[in-house]
Amino acid sequence: MWNVFDMLSYFDEAPSSTENLGSLYIDLPKKKSQVILSLHQQKKQCQSAWIALLRLNPDRQQRKQLLEITAELIAPWFVEPALLMDFLTDSYNAGGSLSLLALSGVFYLIQNRNLDYPSFYPKLYSLLDADILHSKHRSRFLRLLDTFLASTHLPAMLVASFIKRLARLCLNAPPSAIVAIIPWIYNLLKKHPLCTFMIHRVPRTSEAKAAIENEGFKDPFNEEEMDPMQTQAIDSCLWEVVQLQSHYHPNVATIATIISEQFTKQLYNMEDFLDHSYQSLVDAELSKSVKKPPAVEFMIPKRVFLPNDPASGVEDNLLVKLWDFE
Amino acid sequence: MPGSQLQRLKASLREQGVIGPQQSKKQRRKAAQNGKVNTNNRAAALESIRDEFNPFDFKHNARGPKFQVTSNRPTLGNEAKGITGRPGDAKAMGEERRRQTLLVEMNRRNKTGGIRDQRFGENDASMTYEEKMAQRFMREKQTHHKASIFDLEDDEPMDALTHMGKSLSFPDKDDFEESDLLGLQESDSDKDSTADSRGLKRIRESEDVEEQGGANVEGEPERKKTKQEIYKEIIAKSKLHKAERQAQKDADEHLREELDEELSDIQALLFQKTKLISGEQDETITKPDEFGREKMERDYDLQLRQLAMDRRAKPSDRTLTEEEIARRDFEKLKEVEDKRQKRMRGELSDGEDNNEEKDVRDTQSNATKLAWHDEEEEGDFMLGSGIRTRPTATELGFDDEDDFIVESDLLASGSDLEPIESEDEYSSVKEEEEDQEDEFTKVLLNETKSQDPALSKESNDPNNETDRISSCPENLPQLLDMTCALSPEQIPILIQKIRRLYHPKLASENKTKLASFSRVLVQYLFHLPNTASPLPWASLENIIRHLHSLAKSFPVDISEGFRSQINDFAIRCLSPTLGDMVILMAVGTIFPPSDAFHPVITPAMLLIARYLGQKIPKTTKDFVQGVFMGSLVLHYQKLSQRYCPEFVNFSLNTLVSLVPSQAIKKKVNFPQHELASGMSIAGASKIEVRKLKVIDCVTEPTSEKIDLSIRVVTLDTTVQLLDTATQLYASKPAFIETFEPVLFALRHMTESSCKPHLPAILIDHVTRLQTKLQNMLAISQLARRPLELHHHRPLAIKSAIPKFEDQFDPDRHYDADKDRAELAKLKAEHKKERKGTMRELRKDANFMAREKLRMKKQKDAAYEKKYKRLVAEIQGEEGREANTYEREKQARKRAAKR
Q1: Which among B110, B293, B297, B605 is least buried, having the fewest CB atoms inside 10 angstroms?
Q2: Higher pLDDT residue, A270 or B268?
């Protein structure tokens, strides 16, 4: 099966017209109606080959490999792309990284072949789980997500759910993910002004004010709700982003402040933020040279590892309290 | 000084030869030959003189000023009268200049030549570079030797003063005139009314002389003295004065000599006291011989000079009272703390950092460009005021810096509280180590002294220590060589000694030596824990403290050292060694971890977070390491309270992985690690909970029992860390979301499936944290408010009102675009210059044509004259011959007739 995959994936893009069929490595037959000269026939053959391959019931790893090239290489060969639908929707429903990979294929079908996938957004929403911001397909997914939510015609409630959900996930995300999510949130807020209530909500009535004063503001966002239209995220607030304004990494903290500053910039270019990693951030920090003398702690502590003399009244540092340096 | 208009006219007419004394025939002929005055030239010369001497030839705008303008500058002089130029003057000047330059060149054209000898000057190939330069310098000096007119060295006479290129003195006329001397009333009408000041002075002098002299000749009728008489009088007077002065001087001299002779007596009176005290001195003083006097005078001068040089006494700083000292210290500490707060908020004042705060939006193409804004406004939106349990300075032990007694033998100039200087820190460290040294000496006395050259001196001969440490270690192997024979406890002493020997105050190069030593020390700090066992924590602590005090003098070197260590750690990020941990610990101590951005702290923190984020613990060791890293995170963020997601993730994962039984799967927001097998704790209820040991981070536990106990302790430490974290992050806006999963995990630990397996004390910790967390979550919920981030002032619409200029000047151009204004200015200048140059060139060409024509005419005239002369000559000759012929003919005719 693997050889077949290699061979089939070797034909890269499907030719767009009969002229670009390319050389066939054999003498061309004279008759015009020969099967080999017809683009349609060629596509048909290729399609059946792929379908035969897909029917072999590939395992998870193989599926992943297939899905990786679906949108770019496989789908264009199909005369009837609907035939791919089963495979893709199955993969999409499988969850985890398979869904992630199937996403681009499904999107291809929706975009180019008019596939109707009614629960696309709920499904997309369900993909936002704890691991998504830690997976290695993060930037790929975020790119697609950016495309899916680019439309200004989407309901604000749905967009708000996505924003809130990702903000929530950011609380446990690596800095490289946070720097991508926050500009993305900014862009969405800019596109959907209704969602800006999530960052600026002044209680209007005196009763509401009193309620908030007395009981605090209860987050109406329902994390368990699977349907992005029902999560009430639009009535919530983005405290998570505000918390990230005090992120330990100065750049992340700075990026988080864009949410609370005036929205003067039209849109952020997402490509600038997507491809970061711990390594790139560390490299960026260490490649800067020290020009001016860095600040040095004024006080030299009496003890670093060993417990202080209890008589001195100086508090031990946290490590000394918790650890045994003997 | 210019003469009057008339005088100038006369002078120039004379110069041109138009007027002048009657010339003899011969002179005239000569002049004619030179072509000086013929009628043509005469006319031209007169014309030029007329032009030149018409200062009233003004150029006006034909129809008055172009625009009626009001300017804030007052109009003066020519401008006020609307005069835009003086064509006559300008023309004359231009003509004159051309005659001096262009004409000379023209005449010399095709005529000058010469040989340039390349053997001289800097072109000589055989010269060395220096000689060439010397030659060039000489040449330049010669060519540019435009000596000042006031240069006394100059042999040449001073250039006469000029006005508008004309000499002010008239060479053919003596400016001394009797009439000047005798008074202005008789001065000629054509004389300039402002006679020269020298003249005036002289007048006054002569008047004085007259008055004085007048006493003698009283009664005589006023008579005009001759010049000779006046001078005689002056001379006589001055001679008299001189004689008087001489006499006075002589008298003075005499008096002084007398006084000098009496001086010894006077001095004896003056220095009576000293004489009593110092017997030998009085000998010399009393002996009035020549030598003694000289010596005394010298001494006197010396003393005088000393007195003059003595610094005036200044009031010294008052000894401060205790309150004042305390206040001063408090202010100092407050300042330091303010600075720290500022850095924590990221408000930096230097320009350098402002570069970094470029627009975030444009600069994020890669991570280096992630611009880092200075502002964090989070404070305004925090829920509640936050628990800022910042201990006061004294609590933190700040004052131990100042408590030490400054030792007199120390090099440091006891200047206190100078954070940049290392002296006081140095001495403080030294002071502290003094007590330790005592212990060491005791130990050392028992040991063999010869074993270690660096230490044996400690006990007996502190003066000799310079011989012992051969050199300041410049790289790690050197330091290792030095320390190989030492026990870890002795290393701080060695360091201290090196620092004392190579103190920057002792020699200028010591600064660089110590700088490189501090880098080495950082490497050593990494090296020591990796090699030594058991870990000498006291020594490490001391090294860190040494590094800290060195860091105040060499912040760049130390930070570079730490950065390179961090760089190494970045490579093996997920498997840190003990050395890395010590380095991270040292970084958090030496540098302020609360800074928003710090070149050492930021990468270190990032690496710690990276470990916590990416490490998936498989063994007990990994968990212990993770807990250590987590403690470091909280240690770093103690003051700044920055949020670290990775820490929360790791702690949660630790709780989930180590508990005896798994909770029911619940949707969580943190990525759960795959559970490592055999990590869950079981049957540990009897195990004693102690503190974690750092050594556990790197060593695999030897037995199953120890392994289990370590895991239990890890769990306990994690709970404690989370306890600290809840306090730290209590005021965070998303506290509820962050810590709810923690509460779930804790709740699970107290459930029946886990409880029996865990020791009671741990359960106690857990329940305590659980209740605390519950309370805090409830408080946080109460304190939660909807976000109101955008109470910004509405953005102003761009105004289109023209900018009003307060001091408008129509002559100036007001272009808002600076570049364009500059360009316009340049263009205008270029145009002006171009026109000027063209005009000049045209005038030059005209002048040249004129001159050529004049020369041609001259030549033609000369030719014509010559031709005429020749013709006349020939004609004369021929006429004579013809006459002769005629006469002959007539004679013959007559003869024939006869």
Answers
A1: B110
A2: A270
